[in-house]
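Training component of the fellowship. As part of building independent skills, the fellow (R.M.) carried out the full modelling exercise for a liganded target. The chosen ligand was EPZ. The inputs are recorded below so that the supervisory panel can assess the work.
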Amino acid sequence: MDKILIEGGVPLHGTVAVSGAKNAALPVMAAALLAEGDHRIGNVPDLADVRTLSRLLAHMGCRVERGAGGSVEVRVPRDASPEAPYDLVRTMRASVLVLGPLLARWGRARVSLPGGCAIGARPIDQHLQGLAALGAELRLEHGYVEARVPRGRLSGTTFTFDKETVTGTENVMMAAVLAEGRTVLENCAREPEVSDLAAALVRMGARIEGAGTHRIQVDGVESLRPVAHDVIPDRIEAGTFLVAGALPGNRVTVTGCVPAHLEALLEKLRSVGASVATVAGGLEVAGGARPRPVDVKTAPFPGFPTDMQAQMMVLLALADGSSVVTETVFENRYMHVLELRRLGADISVDGRVALVKGGRGLSGAPVMATDLRASAALVLAGLAATGVTEVRRVYHLDRGYERIEQKLAPLGARIRRERA
Ligand code: EPZ
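Fellow's submitted model of the complex:
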């Protein structure tokens, strides 16, 4: 197991490029199951989660290979074994994204229920209700979703999600593309990753309108063709580097990102007093002498992303005053607070609300990563802290950041990875 060592207090200057989006690559790879043949998915980051999904697709009978220039090539057979075993699903809950495509393509599926998660209960009831509305019969047995389509083919319908769910919208949308007739999905998630999946599906021959809005309309087709699609840049990786740039004394240019995907974050970075500029190929952010306090409330896109909450908290822990952070998407997403306190942050939590009393500085210490975005926050805190910070359990980080230490070092960061 690796750990990351950071000698903090060194100003960061320079340019860093973002990779493709994990949360777009995973659903697009799952969507490949919808069509027999050779798919090429480009700009796919080399991450643990991508490797997990590759193993899952291979387990079903696909051939998955890393191609040139960050692409993944998936050969999908005529017949696959529509099963997602517990051992693969438990390491990555996004594996549930194969359920919709399996049901749509083969009319049956056996997919392990994803277990609990550090950041919340994360049920999949909305996924299951949406698939049932399309005509699937689903029962939970021995920790698995046993699903089949009695009619052999799913049927178009109108379904309203009780709450906005990113992978729920993606799963049901993927099922609807091969259903008979029209499906109208209401209260859909509007994340850019949902729109990117829809764009890939349309390239495969699907008929989809409204992705990126609350109302998505899908007219089912008989069959789809293999896709060649480059996924969008990772807005959360970009956001993490932009927060690094907003730390006092830093100036960082992030290239390859889409500013429109980051508006809510950029607005908060401007509010804390960082300078934010659109430059050729990306965004440049420079931190002021000391951040101003600002309140942050997470929300589904285009609101402030919950996946940036922990990283933003690091900035607020250095602010000249107190900020209130409210986490509305997940019920248990403050695991990083205990570790930030070890670095000297003054943060108190009451349910979904955290009060961050800004202080003059952080001091390095050994800390433990608890989940993907919490680990990114600990790296940022280590960069800002005096002395050495040792981040352990970085396997959390590797799930969503491609070689983060190799991306930060050229900016001047004194950061390295070591065997723990
Ligand atoms: C996606 O997770 C992302 N993962 C998450 O990123 C991200 O935090 C989340 O969306 C919110 O933006 C991927 O895209 C692979 P949700 P997802 O369903 O789809 C509740 C990261 O760091 N809910 O939108 O699982 C749920 O419990 C990860 O990269 C139900 O109640 O999130 C949560 O409170 C972490 N029933 C809320 O909705 C359901 O059936 C939003 O969850 C589904 C969700």
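The panel noted the following from the submitted structure. The mean pLDDT is 97. The chain has 14 helices and 24 strands.
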